[in-house]
Design brief:
heterodimer; A: 620 residues; alpha+beta; Multidrug efflux transporter AcrB transmembrane fold; Alpha-Beta Plaits; 5-stranded mixed β-barrel; 5-stranded mixed beta sheet; 15 strands; elongated; B: 367 residues; 4-stranded antiparallel beta sheet; two-stranded parallel ribbon; 6 strands; 68% helix; SecD/SecF_arch_bac (chain B); transmembrane helix (chain B); translocation (chain B); protein transport (chain B)
Chain lengths: 620, 367
């Protein structure tokens, strides 16, 4: 006879045993005495989660590219030589930001870009988007330029020349647009204060200005008007609002036809323009209105920016500002261009910061900035300042991105794979259920209910996690869930086998259930912990598909613990009170005779009322 | 239930059982043999790394493509200038693999293939993989494996003891070696799916081992306070006691995986589902085997070297010798000795007298 378990408890009254076997008596006792409470708790939790699921409208888990169809691109950041430190969270986040803009600029806003691991970026483009174009967009490096503004106006679909001012002529000439912003209402006090330097008064569309950097060398004398570049570029020089230096007719025509409020127009605006060309572009001003621009050739390159960051300027109450630092070459170029621009009337005193053909900011210039650094101020909030700084930094990111894998799955195959995964899961579940039914009979009722609760919880949580953390169910995740059926079922098996062992010792069901629990609980916790550890390590360390798998495995392992503690055990306690189970009905799976239980033998002396079910002289 | 249930009862009581610990040398030998074969297979044949590890492209055409395999091969080779492998899948679609091309070129090839095969380019599934992607996945996996092993050894050393941690680690390495060895020997293609499957085995193999160890720990808690059984014998009984659970767990774990394998292989032809389930299937079987035949006997081996356990063994043997000499076995101890003489099968241990002796007394006082 198995030595250790028997002598420890068999001869003692059950009550005494409980104290020995369950050190955390309070907890165990409460779980035992109030099984309904835990059951109610988990049922309420399920109901609440399900309610939340329907309320949020996400009744199915979000599907990954391999199940829904689409293109998934994995990019790997490659640092420039000697700049290994460039792969850090800030730079990667900036890159993700930029790529998001570009991919979603294609006209589909469902594409998602996220970092994975420390150096990978995953771009998922759902079906229906031109995946080729998207790939091109993602693959190329961002182009950030500083271009002088020649003309700008609010672009509205209805009226191509919306200029409300008296001087507004029908022609889309630069001068018209110069006054076209008289209606701007977002002008800050600061803008008004500085507007005196700009002849056409109302200054920039976005109420932002480049002022000299705090530490900039105040030498406006270097102001660039004598710069050799001046003649080379068709920047409107001292035109005083006249259209003396009008860009060529082609650009003019493009400008006239451009409707920035239209997504398609926007996507094609200024496409293919070389940095040395005069071009048109779109941008969104601080009121969210689209504005169109004619821009001169690029004066400063994104790569000329050494560093840009958002700073809260405590002096002068300027609030959030963005400071830029230029490289040596960039500082010179920037000094040149600002020197020229500062002498222009509005809007030609503005320069546009153009990222991938879109104007992200168009500050105006008061004076030549030659110190190698500059500050853009305006009425930024922190987020705006941060985002502008990020964009400015991007041109300077010492990273390039390489395509590591590109997977294109047609919707048909995706559907098929999803179908296959579901069928495989159903078959797996059915096989497990059949096995449990055959082997555990009545007990399997508890196991199957627990499996169902577990499955329901997994489904609901996955659905909710879709929008919450961007969880997408992909094929490996489905595999993880199917594998988890085994781990979940094992917890029940461990517990049931323990109960049966106790019954074989000659115990009746109710004490057996309570006595088996502390030991089964420990085994379940220890083994689930190992399983969870595996999932967690995989999730943190690995990339790509492995991560999706690890996530599901970890989630289901956690849910397994929750279900066993709050559902299976209380249900078992309740069921143990029912006659069907307690009397050891031969279909209950707990029939002492079939289990080969020991009769209590002499211990009956010490236990005056041996439970009927356990008296079985078979083995005596 | 009845038969297995009765078997479970008999295993539980130690009436029947297999002497896992006593026969450990045989099983060690078998495992070493398998491991050597696996390592040799790995060294000689190497792993058949999938396209994901070499870089290249896999195109899958829509169903019912009316082009023969050899025809498609020619098309693909023309289009890419590289060797192409074409397989026909169960549903009539073609799987075209081209190794050694980079992702930029793959687009052109796809278009050209679409032209040749007369299907819409948008309807071709394409998986383009840079040469370093698979390597990266594999590297990360190894890294994860190393971190996981260290953490688990620490955890097991705290939760159980270092001997068990070592034994579990040996069993884990054993499982992984065998699984990869089978991949090398049979020549299955290794894909990221395989890696995922392999990593799951980690968790599962340990999970299984931990359950057996848990019962072992419980049964050997007061082992030095008695003189009836040595550590090895108790270890053996704890394996037998959890045998039913181990069988059930393995069956329950294998059933869904079998479902995956069937669906993955039967319906989809090839792909992630198939790769994962294949390595899982092999690994789970190895994991169940190793936790019973390798891990626990190994713990017993290590434990028997401990001075306290050596002393215990001495006492136990001395007592048995004495009992055998005295010809008057108090409490059926003669039976114990007799059954120990036949190590292959642990005979009945249920003697009413013995049970009576133990009743109601704390185990420590029994002597």
């Amino acid at each position: 006879m198995s030595w250790p378990p028997r002598p420890r408890g068999a001869g003692r009254p059950e009550r005494e045993y409980e104290k020995v076997a369950a050190p955390k008596k309070g907890r165990s006792a409460s779980a035992q005495s109030k099984p309904w409470r835990s059951l109610a708790l988990i049922l309420i939790a399920i109901a609440a989660l399900t309610g939340g699921m329907f309320w949020s409208g996400n009744t199915t888990p979000r599907l990954g590219i391999d199940l829904a169809g689409g293109t998934s691109i994995t990019l790997r950041a490659v640092p420039e030589a000697g700049q290994e430190g460039a792969i850090n969270k800030t730079n990667m986040d900036t890159a993700v930001d930029i790529m998001n803009r570009r991919v979603n600029g294609l006209g589909v806003s469902e594409a998602e870009v996220q970092t994975q691991g420390d150096r990978n970026i995953i771009v998922n483009i759902p079906k229906g988007t031109n995946s080729k174009e998207a790939r091109e967009q993602v693959g190329t490096t961002a182009k950030l330029y500083f271009r002088p503004v020649i003309a700008t106006e609010i672009s509205e679909p209805a009226a191509p020349t919306p200029s409300p001012s008296a001087s507004g002529s029908g022609s889309p000439s630069p001068s018209a647009s110069a006054t076209g912003k008289g209606d701007k209402s977002d002008q800050s006090d600061k803008d008004k204060a500085t507007s005196s330097t700009a002849p056409s008064a109302t200054a920039t569309s976005q109420g932002r200005a480049v002022t000299d950097a705090l530490k900039a060398d105040p030498t406006p004398s270097g102001s660039a008007s004598g710069s050799p570049k001046a003649s080379a570029t068709p920047t409107p020089s001292a035109s005083g609002g006249a259209s003396g230096d009008t860009p060529d007719a082609k650009v003019q025509a493009q400008y006239a036809a451009l409707n920035c409020a239209d997504e398609k127009d926007r996507a094609t605006a200024g496409k293919g323009a070389k940095p040395t060309d005069t071009t048109v572009a779109c941008g969104q001003n601080s009121q969210g209105l689209w504005q169109k621009y004619i821009l001169g050739p690029a004066a400063v390159d994104g790569t000329d920016v050494k560093k840009a960051q958002a700073v809260f300027n405590t002096q002068g109450a300027a609030g959030w500002t963005v400071t830029m630092e230029f490289t040596g070459k960039g500082a010179k170029k920037f000094g040149d261009i600002t020197g020229k621009l500062a002498q222009q009337p509005s809007p030609q005193n503005q320069f546009a910061i153009v990222l991938d053909g879109e104007v992200v900011s168009d500050p105006y210039v008061n004076q030549a900035l030659t110190g190698g650094s500059a500050e853009i101020s305006g009425r930024f909030d922190q987020e705006e300042a941060q985002s502008l700084a990020n964009m400015l930094s991007y041109g300077a990111l010492p990273l390039t991105f390489k395509e590591d894998s590109v997977t294109t799955v047609t919707a048909a195959l995706g559907g098929e794979q999803l179908h296959a995964g579901l069928v495989a899961g159903a078959i797996g579940l059915a096989l497990v259920v059949i096995y449990l039914l055959v082997y555990y009979r009545g007990l399997s009722f508890i196991a199957i209910l627990s499996l169902l609760v577990s499955a329901a919880l997994t489904y609901v949580i996955m659905s909710l996690l879709g929008p919450a953390i961007g969880f997408a169910l992909n094929l490996p995740a489905v595999c993880g869930a199917i594998v988890a059926i085994g781990i979940t079922a094992d917890s029940f098996i461990v517990y049931f086998e323990r109960i049966r062992d106790e019954i074989r010792e000659g115990r009746s069901l109710r004490p057996a259930v309570e006595r088996a629990w502390p030991r089964a609980r420990r085994t379940i916790l220890v083994s689930d912990f190992v399983s969870f550890l595996a999932a967690a390590v995989l999730f943190v360390v690995t990339v790509g598909k492995v991560q999706g798998f690890a996530f599901t495995l970890g989630l289901t392992t956690l849910l397994d613990v929750v279900v066993v503690f709050l559902f299976t055990k209380p249900l078992m306690t309740i069921m143990a009170r029912r006659k069907f189970y307690a009397s050891g009905h031969r279909w209950s799976g707990l029939d002492p005779k079939a289990l080969g239980a020991k009769p209590p033998l002499r211990s009956t002396r010490r236990r005056p009322t041996p439970p009927a079910g356990s008296v079985d002289p078979k083995e005596a | 239930m009845s038969k297995l249930g009765t078997l479970g009862a008999r295993l539980h009581r130690g009436e029947v059982g297999y002497d896992f610990v006593g026969n450990r040398k045989i099983w060690y030998g078998i495992s070493i043999l398998i491991t050597i074969t696996a390592v040799l297979g790995l060294a000689v044949r190497g792993l058949n790394m999938g396209i994901e590890f070499q870089g290249g492209a896999v195109f899958t055409t829509p169903k019912k493509t009316n082009v023969s395999v050899s025809q498609a091969e020619t098309y693909a080779e023309d289009a890419s200038g590289h060797d192409a492998i074409v397989q026909q899948l169960g549903d009539g679609s073609l799987r075209i693999q081209v190794a050694g091309i980079d992702t930029d070129k793959a687009d052109q090839i796809k278009d050209k293939l679409a032209d040749d095969l007369k299907v819409d380019a948008e309807k071709i599934n394409a998986e383009l993989v840079g040469p370093s992607w698979g390597e990266q996945i594999a590297n990360k996996a190894w890294q994860g494996l190393a971190i996981f092993m260290i953490l688990v050894v620490i955890y097991l050393a705290i939760a159980f003891e270092w001997r068990m941690a070592v034994a579990a680690l040996v069993a884990l390495i054993h499982d992984i070696t065998i699984t990869t060895g089978i991949y090398a020997l049979v020549g299955f293609e290794v894909t990221p799916g395989t890696v995922i499957g392999l990593l799951t085995i980690l968790g599962y193999s340990l999970y299984d081992t931990v359950v057996v160890f848990d019962s072992l720990k419980e049964q050997t808690k007061d082992i030095t306070k008695q003189t009836r059984w040595t550590y090895s014998e108790v270890a053996n009984r704890s394996i037998n006691g959890t045998l039913v659970r181990s069988i059930n767990t393995t069956v329950v774990a294998l059933l869904p995986v079998a479902g995956l394998l069937f669906i993955g292989g039967g319906v989809l032809g090839a792909g992630m589902l198939n790769d994962i389930s294949l390595s899982l299937f092999v690994g789970l079987a190895a994991g169940a085997y190793s936790s019973i035949f390798i891990a626990t006997p190994l713990v017993a081996d290590l434990k028997e070297r401990e001075p306290a356990m050596k002393a215990l063994k001495k006492r136990v043997l001395a007592k048995r010798a004495q009992a055998a000499a005295g010809e008057e076995p108090p409490g059926g101890r003669g039976d114990d000795t007799a059954e120990d003489a036949t190590p292959a099968v642990v005979g009945p241990r249920t003697q009413p007298a013995a049970r009576g002796r133990g009743r109601g007394r704390p185990s420590g006082k029994r002597r």
